Known about the structure:
The protein is mainly alpha-helical. It is built from 2 helices and no strands. It has helices at 23-63, 66-136. The chain is rod-shaped, with a radius of gyration of 49 Å.
Amino acid sequence: xxxxxxxxxxxxxxxxxxxxxxxxxxxxxxxxxxxxxxxxxxxxxxxxxxxxxxxxxxxxxxxxxxxxxxxxxxxxxxxxxxxxxxxxxxxxxxxxxxxxxxxxxxxxxxxxxxxxxxxxxxxxxxxxxxxxxxxxx
Length: 137
């Protein structure tokens, strides 16, 4: 049986199934089969090695190319912008909260002014009632 890169399980011809007068021919056929598969297996191993070498060379070229360097630089810039954007979003959220708080304070101030006006009116009314009582005496 032969087995290699081809991953083929080839059974050679069994000499016992043939008359002994064919043994030399059977051996020659088996040798041809084995030689053919071995040579193709070796050829495939060389081709696979060549492809692996090419892949590694291509990987090295790409890793050291201007394109890859620019890609890394742009990626870093993008990550920085995203980080800044996160900071801007926080600032916008804080601004909205502050604006809401200012609006609440302004609303409370308006209510306070109304209360002060009512208080002033009540004090004036109280003074007038006191004058009226004093005049009535």
